[in-house]
Write a structure and sequence with these properties.
Oligomer: heterodimer
Shape of chain B: globular
Number of strands of chain A: 11
Number of helices of chain B: 0
Number of helices of chain A: 0
Helix content of chain B: under 10%
Shape of chain A: globular
Strand content of chain B: over 45%
Distance between the termini of chain A: 37 Å
Order of helices and strands of chain B: EEEEEEEEEEEE
Structural class of chain A: mainly beta
Distance between the termini of chain B: 41 Å
Order of helices and strands of chain A: EEEEEEEEEEE
Strand content of chain A: over 45%
Chain lengths: 115, 112
């Protein structure tokens, strides 16, 4: 079974702090994703990584950065956390699409509260 | 741009009732369409998918048909169980299949 793990289930940080959210997958997937999930808005893509050291902005990258130094690990960084970044953060991974195969495998999420 | 619209929840049903969760989309080109499910405390899991018009995706008793003429991908199940209680997300892919656009999610609650 594919396993995607996230470093914390719950996190509370103060405004202005630098926050690191870590994601690790064990299936040698090239592609990894960070989303935030907010009620009524569904999931919105923050950043996407095609492979090690490669990244692409998603729909809402402002206020975030990412790091992919190793294939299995994809980090989301909040340089200076703000209260409007309070949300559930979900990581996902996937092999690149082959024909019609697109499944993304998701981690359990990190609920971040910024006070 | 691309967008996905789902009916707002929560949807509350009794066990063995018929389920429909509506999903419509706006997209350029011919996206693939997906339903993901999120059980309490877990990440999302792919429930079913359809990659071209008139395809029917099915899994665990759930079905959805890709209707290009109505730009819809409604999720249906003939007889729901308590264990189906979850949040359901409709999604489409873009950027050559590299990214997904999600709807807002619909919470389903099934009572015994």
């Amino acid at each position: 079974d594919v396993k995607v793990t996230q470093s914390s289930r719950y996190l509370v940080k103060r405004t202005g702090e630098k926050v690191f959210l870590e994601c690790v997958q064990d299936m040698d997937h090239e592609n990894m994703f960070w989303y935030r999930q907010d009620p009524g808005l569904g999931l919105r893509l923050i950043y996407f990584s095609y492979d090690v050291k490669m990244k692409e902005k998603g729909d809402i990258p402002e206020g975030y950065s990412v790091s992919r130094e190793k294939k299995e690990r994809f980090s989301l960084i909040l340089e200076s956390a703000s209260t409007n970044q309070t949300s559930m953060y979900l990581c996902a991974s996937r092999v690149p699409p082959l024909e019609d195969y697109y499944e993304q495998y998701f981690g359990p999420g990190t609920r971040l509260t910024v006070t | 741009g691309n967008s996905v619209t789902q009916m707002e929840g929560p949807v509350t049903l009794s066990e063995e009732a018929f389920l429909t969760i509506n999903c419509t989309y706006t997209a350029t080109g011919y996206p693939s369409l997906f339903w993901y499910v999120q059980y309490p405390g877990e990440g999302l899991q792919l429930l079913l998918k359809a990659t071209k018009a008139d395809d029917k995706g099915s899994n665990k008793g759930f079905e959805a048909t890709y209707r290009k003429e109505t730009t819809s991908f409604h999720l249906e199940k003939g007889s729901v169980q308590v264990s189906d209680s979850a949040v359901y997300f409709c999604a489409l892919d873009y950027n050559a299949g590299n990214m997904l656009t999600f709807g807002g999610g619909t919470r389903l609650m099934v009572k015994p």
